[in-house]
């Protein structure tokens, strides 16, 4: 097994193996599993989905990475080269995550949805299973956010998670709301196929065209203010093409435009999927859950580590979390 030469160090006082439960089998959970394996820790990964791939299984059809495969890897094993033109597709990422899981023989239990994590003497009760420590890596895809105003408007309302391709909306008046990467990419995907209106809260802020995921990781970890200080939208080739052809013309919010649409796609972000940690009462006023005694949230955004919600960025945070668990 790759990496099997590491010596076991994940031991509690008295020689008993540290028992860790990782909740979530997407990219963050697998990165945690890699470092737990190297540390010789006894662990299992509980994943609610029936197959590998995490949120990458559910993106829209044209979704691609921001970077070449070599700059989009989890720790230990580089993502294989994408054999076609352009950056890797979501399917390529899913294949990589499935192979990564097998390569490191990570103990993933599937179709296991964790309902609650509670403190008990010496550790945690995870739906009836005991754990000395918990790493929560459930991501954000499962908690899409749609503003409350959508409830009072006519028409069909979708979120990013429900969009698949332009054929889904052929012949319709479509409003895309959101000035981030998802909004720009979906608007670009639709621009040639529907009567499109793109609504953003402020004028779109494109990052310089030459910036890709590798540069984004460096900016997120080293630049004061992170990526947001430079812009909101990575100019991936389809977005750049639609922008340069004058098809991505953003308009400010107009309730009438939204009300007149056949379909509105709300590209308005996500919230951390942390309901299972509610019994611990660890949320702050921003809805974030910070590390508790032997409990680490992983991969939810910059508040859990710089660029930790990205393939290339989650590895260092996962390594630090495992090192902290072993040390304590």
Automatic annotation (TrEMBL):
InterPro entries: Auxin_biosynth/cation_transpt (IPR050982), FAD/NAD-bd_sf (IPR036188). Keywords: Oxidoreductase. It comes from the Bacteria. Coiled coil: none annotated. The keyword Acetylation does not apply. This is Cation diffusion facilitator CzcD-associated flavoprotein CzcO. Pfam families: Pyr_redox_3. GO terms for molecular function: flavin adenine dinucleotide binding; monooxygenase activity. It comes from Saccharothrix ecbatanensis.
């Amino acid at each position: 097994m790759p990496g099997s030469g590491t010596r076991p160090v994940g031991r509690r006082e008295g020689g008993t193996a540290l028992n860790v439960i990782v909740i979530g089998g997407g990219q963050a959970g697998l990165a945690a599993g890699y470092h737990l394996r190297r540390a010789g820790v006894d662990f299992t990964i509980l994943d609610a989905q029936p197959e590998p791939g995490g949120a990458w299984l559910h993106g829209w059809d044209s979704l691609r990475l921001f970077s070449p495969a070599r700059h989009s890897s989890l720790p230990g094993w580089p993502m294989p080269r994408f054999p076609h033109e352009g950056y890797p597709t979501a399917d390529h990422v899913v294949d990589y995550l499935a192979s990564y899981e097998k390569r490191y023989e990570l103990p993933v239990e599937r179709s296991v949805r964790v309902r609650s994590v509670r403190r008990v003497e010496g550790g945690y009760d995870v739906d009836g299973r005991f754990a000395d420590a918990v790493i929560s890596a459930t991501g954000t895809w499962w908690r899409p956010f749609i503003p409350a105003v959508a409830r009072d408007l006519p028409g069909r309302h979708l979120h990013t998670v429900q969009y698949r391709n332009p054929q889904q909306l052929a012949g319709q008046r479509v409003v895309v709301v959101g000035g981030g990467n998802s909004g720009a990419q979906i608007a670009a995907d639709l621009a040639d196929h529907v009567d499109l209106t793109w609504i953003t809260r402020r004028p779109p802020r494109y990052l310089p065209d030459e910036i890709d995921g590798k540069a984004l990781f460096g900016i997120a970890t080293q630049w004061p203010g992170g990526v947001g200080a430079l812009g909101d939208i990575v100019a991936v080739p389809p977005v750049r093409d639609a922008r340069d052809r004058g098809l991505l013309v953003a308009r400010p919010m107009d309730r009438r435009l939204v009300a007149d649409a056949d379909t509105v796609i709300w590209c308005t972000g996500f919230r951390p999927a942390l309901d299972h940690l509610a019994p611990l009462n660890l949320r702050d006023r921003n809805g974030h859950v910070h590390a508790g005694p032997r409990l680490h949230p992983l991969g939810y955004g910059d508040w859990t580590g710089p660029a930790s919600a990205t393939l290339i960025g989650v590895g260092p945070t996962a390594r630090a979390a495992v090192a902290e668990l072993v040390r304590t």
